[in-house]
Write a structure and sequence with these properties.
Layout lengths: L1 H55 L1
Length: about 55
Amino acid sequence: NSKLQAQLDALRKAVGEGEIKSLQSNLTLEKVHGKEMKLQNEQFGIEINQTTWRCHS
C-alpha cells in the first residue's frame, strides 16, 4: 500500500511539473506575440509618419 502511495505521489508530482512547464511555455508564447504586436504597431506608426512627411514636403 505504501509503495502504491509513493507511486501515486510521484505521478502527481510529474503531472504537476508537466502542467507548470506547459503554462510557462504558454506564457512565453504570449510574451512573444505581445512583443511582435508592439513592433508591428511601432512599424505602422513609423510608416504613417513617413507618409505624412512625404505629403507635406
